Amino acid sequence: MGQPSHALVRGGYGAVVPHYLDVDVDELTLDFACREMADAAVLKEIPTDVDVGVGVIDVRNLEIEQPEQVAERIRTALGFIDPERVTLTTDCGMKQLPRPVATAKLRSLHAGAAIVRHELLGTELEGAP
Question: Could you give the CA distance from residue 44 to residue 35 in angstroms, rounded to a whole number?
Answer without folding.
Answer: 18
